[in-house]
Fold this protein.
Amino acid sequence: MTITQRIYIPRDSAALAVGADDVAQEIARQATLRGIPLAIVRNSSRGLLWLEPLVEVQTPGGRVAYGPVEASEVAGLFDAGWLDGQPHALCHGPTEAIPYLSKQERLTFARAGITDPLSLDDYRATQGYKGLEKALDMTPEAIVAEVTESGLRGRGGAAFPTGVKWKTVLATPADQKYIVCNADEGDSGTFSDRMLMEGDPYALIEGMTIAGLAVQATYGYIYVRAEYPHAIATLQAAADTARKAGWLGADLRGSGRAFDLEIRVGAGAYICGEETSLLESLEGRRGLVRAKPPLPAHKGLFGKPTVINNVISLATVPTILDRGARAYRDFGVGRSTGTLPFQLAGNLKQGGLVEKAFGVTLRELLYDFGGGSASGRPLRAVQVGGPLGAYLPESQWDVPLDYEAYVAISAMIGHGGLVAFDDTVDMSHMAHYAMEFCALESCGKCTPCRVGAVRGTEILDKIRHNEQCDVQVTLLRDLCDTMLAGSLCALGGMTPYPVLSALDHFPEDFGLPATAPVRATPA
Amino acid sequence: MPPDPTASILPDPVVQQTTAAALQRYAGQQGNLLPALHAIQDALGCIPSRAVPLIATALQLSRAEVHGVISFYPHFRQTPAAPVVLHVCRAESCQAMGGEALADHARHTLGCDFHGTTTDGAMTLEPVYCLGLCAQSPAIMLNGRVHARMTPQKLDRLLEATGDGA
């Protein structure tokens, strides 16, 4: 019996957004015309996003990559003999040997692009549910200890040790506890949550189930933003399949242990990515930030002890349980252990997902992976960590990406997104935008954020129009101090980072002398 | 209560039945207000103010609380959008790749500002702050379908094709 040759075309949004469905249709049409039996697999994306739609042809020597493929080029690719892995202008050789991919350290994204995201068989064949199988034989304390030992820190941005959070919830007695997954990935320049949910949904479900066993929570919620319809549909389908197969429900694979979850959809509010605001939203209210304490670990969703973690944190847990905390710890530097899926975005030639151990530098990511600017002009500024992250000038691109080293330069790694700008960027405009965004998305509960952001845009307007520039700059710094120290959450509290970093590192864009002294780093 | 601007397009029985069905679907679930609102908007294209008292009664909330939730979230609409909705991403990554010029082009082509609708009522223009396609900026969403590596020319072609299909 001959096995039908497989051809892979991603179903990730990033591929769909550049015509992957048209390419898949055309491949099917051409195969029929030519009488060639082909099995078209809609895999997830490898994360080499500048090459999407990236089509992979299964050959005896492994998968061979072609991209970016347009529907109009499909016939020519058949003619060139791509089913035998023959050369073509769009051919990149064996996928695994593409340096962008081979130089990565993929743990959380080990399955990305390899499997059909909704195939439970594919998942099981690639170490899927091995972590949960181990966890089912462990005590809650032992699971928490393993996660603590791994050094995993919250990948949503705050970098709080996951094990410590879990330990607190485990130690808090209650009749009901919850696992909440924060999948409200609203930061510009970030897409790793989306890729994980669309590309490896069972990993998230498995991670949440392990978290449930660890803290004795029997129910979970995944709060996904409404802007991610494909992620919502994929998670929904994966949860249904997992439930049917006994991986969710009242009796997990005959263990007598229970865990189930549901998917809840956000409604366009950026602030709901803040954990307490997210809990308010899940409870059916306006997403107003809660004052802490009480911590969600003590009094979270519906007043019950709650683990609230980001998608990547939770989806990394199965790997830690499967390979062991020590194996995970072997990656990274200092207190930043493991890997982070960095997201290369903005003005870069080769944008995409790069999972690397902590300690890599921005320069390596921008040039060795990103290939420099897409526009061909010199890169000038990079915003790391989303809209609340600092803009870094070239002088800081050699600082190793680790949580503490970034704090030391008044920056943050956050969720690992980097947005590159070339030399056409006006940094006073970006500072203005940061304040404007804060004003737009503020929940309104605390004054420094609600009023401060509006005043901030007004001050920046004046600076940009060169009205009393020196006085306004002093006022802006004073305002930023108030927002930083007085805001209830990170939105108001961190908007000063992009604003002040733009001002400090690019003063010439604010009509100030280029040699203005850089403000001392706050302790 | 001010008159409901959707009264002429959404008859009372439709609003009542849709609202009742949405509430029924999520009855008894904790924190079910957002799921119910999504279900109503998915069915009607908006959440008419006539639905508010029905929701409030069923969930034992005040009308103010329900209205407060609807008005807090940008996704929820109190009047329907045009048949075609164009979302243009305005966040940093898209700005780094000409997103502002694309936004200006969209405004100019449609002849309306963000949150506005074309004079013929055919198309609504909305901003969006990140579609998660930041490695292929700038990005837009047209009637729920995402498109990346967008240019003004490509956008014109897409809008033209959408107009033909409508």
Observations:
- Strands of chain B lie at 84-89, 116-117, 123-128, 140-142, 145-147.
- Chain B touches chain A through 42 residues (CB under 8 Å).
- Helices of chain B lie at 12-25, 33-44, 51-59, 63-72, 92-95, 99-110, 152-165.
- Residues 84-165 of chain B form a domain with the Glutaredoxin fold (CATH 3.40.30.10).
